[in-house]
Amino acid sequence: MADKRDESLDETAARLGLGAGPIAKMPLPPRGRRPEVPRLGGNHLAAGPPSRKVRGGTIAAPAVGIIVVVVIVAVIISAVAGCGGIQLGANPWSEYPGTEYDDPREILAAPSLEEVTERAEAFTDAFKTALGEEYGLLWQQEYEGDLRLTGNGYDGDSMLYDYSSPNWLGAAVVNDADAREHIITVFQELSAEYGAEDFYIANDLYVEDGDEESAISQFGSATRSKQALWSASADVYGLGGLNMNVDVFDSTIPTDKDFTGDYYSRVIELEDGDATLFITFRLSSYTLLSEDDRDEFTERIRQYDEDNKP
Predict the structure, then answer these.
(1) CA neighbours closer than 13 Å in the CB half-sphere of residue 43
(2) 233 in a structural domain
């Protein structure tokens, strides 16, 4: 079954247009309990009668008893294993198709992998179009999208996927101190149209906490209006949700931080000169079931007692 799952990863990624890059499995810290393996031997066997003399030497009666017990148990285990029975040390939940904490009924009711990626692509097109027309942004893809199996929480892979969109960079020559705030506003309004229930600007968190040192280190100033970098996030909550993130950097803003060598310190030559405004955004979602896997997921999940998860 594992081989079949591995082979379908690249096919699923290709169908969703995520590129031909390697699709990796997401490692998960070992959780859950492995069944205790009974041990034979030790001091728990009752003492037998004293040894007796026989021709050729002395035979210890307890030793004979232990040997007989071990042989009988070994024969039984071999017979059961040969018939497809239990395997000592095996974790019966390692092939669980869901995840440790999610209800399979909620997974089946949530938006599918295909629906979420379609929503992400629609938002990407709308956001790029809205800002491109207004600021004349040149867009380029920085990183390919990623699709990988979600760990099930029992030292194995589920049948669900974690999705990351391509990372996009937009650049333009803009001399407008209000551009950062306007772009963040466009992002907020558009994300709400695509179902976002929560929105926040990371810059405000540092300002509200009075953490001036961290604000300068992260955004270039302790005062929001003087911060060259603004960062915001919006979330569609629940299974099949979507996390959206955007960064806006204005290189014309004098700051208390030297951004030389930083991601945004690059030189991008445009027709009007070197870019001064940079926008990056990416989207992600987790624990997604592909429409093509619904029947198999439903069949495999029935093999497990949901009320007694480890």
Answers:
(1) 0
(2) yes
Please name every residue paired with 236 in a beta bridge, in sequence order, or none if there are none.
242
Residue with tokens 């497990």: 304
Nearest to 15 by CA among 296, 236, 293: 293
Structure tokens given for 39: 């041990």
Q: How far apart, in whole angstroms, are the C-alpha atoms of residue 116 and residue 271?
A: 36
Task: Indicate the number of domains in the chain.
Answer: 1
Helix (H, G, I), strand (E, B), or coil: what is residue 78? helix
Say how far apart CA 299 and CA 64 lie, in whole Å: 49
Mean pLDDT of 263-289: 86
Amino acid letter, 280: T
What's the pLDDT tens digit per position in 103-159? 999 999 999 999 999 999 999 999 999 998 899 899 999 889 999 999 999 999 999
For residue 85, is it within any domain?
no
Cα distances (angstroms) measured from residue 184 to each of 149, 176, 193, 248, 265: 32, 14, 14, 8, 20
- Candidates 292, 290, 296, 309; CA nearest to 116 is 290
Instruction: Give the tokens for residue 181.
Output: 């705030």
What percent of the chain is helix, strand and coil (3-state, nearest 5)? 35, 20, 40
Nearest to 191 by CA among 238, 138, 126: 126
The domain of 19 spans 2-32+99-299
Distance CA 91, CA 70 (A): 24
**Which residue type does 253 have?**
I
Rounded distance between C-alpha atoms, residue 223 and residue 212, angstroms: 8
The whole-model pTM stands at: 0.70
Closest CA to 111 of 76, 157, 163: 163
